[in-house]
Amino acid sequence: MFVRWHTPSDSDLRVLDVRRAEAALMEHYARLVRLVYVTLPRSPGRHRRVLAAHGLVQRALPHRAPAIPVRRRSGDARDAAPDEYGVLRTSVLRAAMAQDARRGPLTRSRGRWAGRPALPAVWGLRVFPQSGGAEELLLDRALAQAGWPVRAAVALLVLEKLSVDEAATVLRDTGVAEPGEALRAARRLVDESGPQLSNPGSGTGTAETADGSGPASAAGGSGPPVSALLAPEFDPCLLHARPTDLLRRRHRVRTAVTGALLAACVGAVSLSLAGDSGVPAESGRDWTDSKAVGTALLRQTPAGVWADTARVDFTAWPARGARTGDRALLERALRAWSDPSWRGRRSQEAGAAPTGSGPAPHLLFADDVDGRAVVVLHDDLTTVRYSEPLDGDGTPELVSALTDGANVTTAAAVVVSRTPESVRMLLAPWIAEAGMRDLLAPDTPAREVSRSRTGLTEPLPVPSAGGDCRTWPVVQLRSSTRIVEKHAFLLTDLGGLSPVHLTYMPPPEPGVRPRPPREATGPDALRGWARTACRLDGMRGQGVRSVNHWIFAQQDLPERAGRATWVCARADTWRGPGRVEYLFLGPGTGPARSAGVRANTAECSRFGQHVLADVDWRAPSGSSYLLAAGSRSVGSIKASGPLRAEADGRFLAVRAPRNTDAKVVGQLPERAEVRAP
Q1: Which of 248, 461, 662, 664 has the highest count of CB atoms within 10 angstroms of its CB?
Q2: How far apart, in whole angstroms, are the C-alpha atoms of residue 513 and residue 520?
Q3: CA-CA distance, 226 to 150, in Å (whole number)?
Q4: Which of 178, 195, 199, 204 is nearest to 229 (CA)?
Q5: H-helix or E-strand containing 488?
């Protein structure tokens, strides 16, 4: 057996700040639920596993500030702050391990999985993640045959991308007596079912995936890659729903009718005696349960709250527009969002629910715009635009987009009206300045954008679709000094309800630690985006939240032909998965050239900083070369296949025939590897 409880010493105990823990839980909720879902036993079925995973995570937050074993951050141990996410992760893993320990042969008690948390509960439906392919099925079977510590080890290495030492520490804190044995068993499982998590010869290392999405990857067995854990098959937050046994439910309903009628009569008498209490309906209740959706359920944020809150997102928007008091219009908008049988034109962006769910929505805007009545709503997860024609018999329209986790930049604007040539945006109340510029003309200053008192802009040009990339309009906004000083940023329209935030990372400097992406408003950022902006056209309609332009290498070309720049353009979606395109920029000012694309990957993010790309290049002399460049941690590069070559350092340049199908691999510290796309 692997499992025992580890008792921390008194020096390891710290009092956890419950409010900060709640913020960490909300920020990383989907990540924690997936982690628990992967480690739970498979026998009760996916429906019960989904509910159990959500229940364990929702119950992880303590009701008061307890003394909890906390892994302190670096620095002075006496003054170090607790890692709230690390504590929550350990807590939910302990709860999952307790579920596994109590299940025995996974007994059933009164039709329920014994020990399953009481909440959440789903009546009349069976929910389950998207069905995967052969790789996901084989990996799930392999995990089902492994013990809980092994499943937890695989999840920590692959999902959390921890090193072997870090994963061992978490397993030990969770209560696993022999984390090394669990990690070795996890390696054996992966060796049998797919690529290795890390090089067996290294004592530590980061988790890696078959498609290179982690810091390194290596060839393994012939089965499914461990990157299958990142697929929707293992995501309990992206669910399908089906009804339960309808006949059995009908019999149960008939049996309960008499009792329900009696209870209703008693309740009606009690209510008539009690009278109207005058207490308004709870704003947080599930408003879609009511057939008669009323405007009284709408939440409205008072004006000025945005300047006095640390949560600067859509919840801080006040209700604006001349028709915020039009109850009939608002009721039509709410009914369109809540009723699946609504007959208007409905569309949702990637990841968004077609109908409302969760707490009652905030009213953000209601007014007439370009011949249509427009209502904008937000329910903490989804932003919705409802519109109907003011005259004639045109069709009402409802557009929904996932905007969970928006911030001061990604909640800065919403598109309220669209034509093929232009859009009108509603700007956040914290926007002090707004301008328009062409991303392909970096030296041309931005022109001022006019807007109404409610924050509605003039019609703004949009990038042309279909490859006609002669201009690329972007909006340059600046935040009010009441929330942040001199914070300017760029947004661009990619056809969605929310514009896309553009950021920039300059090339690495020796001896300087990497910095997070910065705003793309400086001269170098604008010149870099001028050569890659047209690649944004391929990201339309994918629910993109932000795109970062990262210069990960600059290479001197053979034959003294100048200097090339290597860029990774990473598009993060509102759903979480990312898409990257590697770009090669030769000398001069010409457009970028694609060097490979990867989808559903962590590459070029804080969780995937080791990258490598290669491209065929023709010198001015007519000679052909294979060029490759890696990020700062790449120590050497090797090409194999039809062409064999090797170079120390993070650059490779070798003569090669055009379109040579070579496999290019970079060597990382501790014998790990990274592969070019």
Answers
A1: 664
A2: 20
A3: 13
A4: 195
A5: strand 488-492
